[in-house]
Design a protein that fits this description.
Two copies of one chain form a homodimer. With 322 residues, chain A is an alpha/beta fold. Chain A has two domains: 5-194, inorganic pyrophosphatase (n-terminal core) (Alpha-Beta Complex), CATH 3.90.1640; 198-317, Diaminopimelate Epimerase, Chain A, domain 1. Chain A has twelve helices and 13 strands. Chain A has helices at residues 5-14, 28-43, 96-99, 129-139, 146-159, 170-181, 186-194, 198-208, 229-235, 244-247, 277-281, 300-317, and strands at 17-22, 47-50, 77-78, 81-85, 100-101, 104-108, 119-122, 212-215, 221-227, 252-260, 265-271, 286-287, 291-296. In chain A, the strands form three sheets. Chain A has a six-stranded mixed beta sheet. A five-stranded parallel beta sheet of chain A has the order 2-1-4-6-7. Chain A has a two-stranded parallel ribbon with strand order 3-5. In chain A, a hairpin with a 3-residue loop joins strand 12 (286-287) and strand 13. The longest helix of chain A is centred in the last third of the chain and has 18 residues, at 300-317. Chain A is elongated. The first copy, chain A, starts with a helix and ends in a 5-residue tail after the last helix. The relative contact order of chain A is 0.09.
């Protein structure tokens, strides 16, 4: 059943033995929400465990208590409540799904949420699940420590591109403001989040060498980057942010990044004024108007040709999303 | 004399013919403050002109009314008030200084402000002069249009590195939140601000090839980029942001960028835990603990050696600024 913030708080209040989890491939929102909620419930004297069927990425190891996050093993755990954070379906929590026997409370902000849980609070207007956790903490007048504020600021900032994405609302920034008042330090947090392995910076020249620009007339361009398997091996999949290079070039309306895998090509699309989700949908993918993706089961050269043709057609339609 | 927000508002209210100006090499804060204040005063039916002794950089030409900004010519202008925005001394407004005969109101946030004006409001705690303008507009209960909100959001966001710098306060983010409520769109603004000429992206591989990393033991490193004159010619001085590449590498404590000029080398320093203003001061420069700069009147190779030695010494002291 659908629950309110107050009801969610009540469910947490009534439970004593609580398991918290979040989606695999955890991002800042999953981890920040997990750690902040864990800190609050632990301070309430509850028996809490954080289970996550994945590693904590190095980037987020500045968050307090990350090392208390456990991986699920084969043993079955009984609890009063399993809280599933930032996951729109139960598949996304991996092995935790079968490891825990408990009623499920799902707190999430994905519009694609499948409402799989016993209790769910899904706010697709929230930029991050971290906003929902902060609302719950405010509703119960919780003491928010600097560590919790840091975790929640990280959750919110990572999911809205550090206040650059279209989901950055007046509430997003107000929460960020309140979290700074509670001890979150944007300059420290951003420093940790922006840190990259040397391999990523060192690979950048090779990546940028693949830059192709197609002029579609009237000063409107499509720009593409291609990551071959050799480069991807060096990068260990750490390719986030590369697509911003073509995207940020003056005159570029559509940016594309091709990532070669063994038998297909993963395609990321970004745009300024063109609805690129339409292009992605045409290849069985999806996403938003400004950011979408798909996988094309063709060799690299053919995949590139197909996508670039589709992008040109979409650009020619001249429909603006602004 | 020092004035309050209310007194500043009163001075603006009493004047009819008002000239607005800001510092040369205008940034987002100078231009956003200028345009927002101009919009408010014009709506009040006042005779307002914006004078700026410089070009408006392309990046900021999305701000409404930028084309109304005039360059001062040789004629002398009399006015009831000259408002000097975001400038800490009168030199910084160039020819406007002599072109306008009027009492001066200076609104600024630089700690180095020389208090040169007839009336000054200087708040060094403000992340941007845009915050001060917003306070004045709020004090007089001005109608803030979406265009004005966009100008002020741009002013604030550019001066705090889009909420990443240490000057990002709880008030900075609260103002940003209120400006979004008034119609500023962070995703549109950031898109304009992030746009770069192709030449800058195309030069990046060459720039990154100059990356040097000096290991100082205990996993602490100094990383340097060197921009020779040839590359700088391609870039037309558009080198902002390059220093973030060495700065963001895992393990790097001090990042340095050397820019070769005809007879000296301009040095930018960034750090995470070391006070680099001490290094800059040693060469007649200055700045903050985390961001400083200086000019060394030596050939490139000697300048590099001197700075890298000083950086190693500063790192060895092991004093943390966090």
């Amino acid at each position: 059943m659908e629950v309110s913030i107050a009801h969610s708080a009540e469910l947490l209040h009534r439970a004593n033995h609580i398991i918290l989890t979040a989606h695999i491939h955890p991002d800042g929102d999953a981890l920040g929400s997990l750690l902040a909620l864990n800190a609050y419930l632990s301070a309430q004297g509850k028996q809490v465990r954080m289970l996550l069927d994945d590693e904590v990425p190095r980037t987020f190891k500045f968050l307090a208590d990350w090392e208390k996050i456990e991986k699920p093993d084969s043993s079955e755990i009984e609890a009063d409540l399993l809280v599933v954070l930032d996951a729109s379906d139960l598949e996304r929590v991996g092995k935790v799904r079968n490891a825990v026997k408990a009623p499920i409370l799902n707190l999430d902000h994905h519009i694609s949420n499948l409402k799989f849980a016993d209790y769910w609070y899904v706010d697709s207007q929230a930029a991050a699940t971290g906003e929902i956790i902060f609302k719950i903490l405010n509703a119960v007048q919780a003491t928010v420590t600097a560590d919790m504020a840091t975790a929640l600021f990280t959750a919110i900032a990572t999911d809205c591109g550090f206040f650059r994405f279209a989901n950055t609302s007046t509430e997003t920034l107000r929460f960020a403001s309140e979290l700074v008042a509670l001890g979150a330090k944007p300059h420290i947090i951003s420093e940790y989040l922006d840190t990259k392995p040397l391999a990523v910076i060192a690979a950048l020249p090779k990546v940028l060498e693949t830059l192709e620009i197609v002029d579609c007339g009237q000063g409107r361009q499509i720009a593409a980057l291609t990551l071959r398997q050799e480069i991807l091996a060096d990068l260990r999949e750490d390719t986030e942010g590369f697509i911003n290079y073509p995207r940020n070039i003056e005159g570029v309306e559509i940016a594309v990044m091709f990532k070669e895998t063994d038998n297909s090509v993963r395609v990321s699309l970004r745009s300024k004024t063109v609805d690129v989700s339409k292009i992605a949908l045409g290849f069985g993918g999806g996403g938003h108007a400004r950011a979408a993706g798909c996988t094309v089961a063709e060799p690299l050269s053919k995949a590139k040709r197909l996508i670039m043709e589709a992008a040109k057609k979409q650009l020619a339609k001249g429909v603006s999303i602004k």
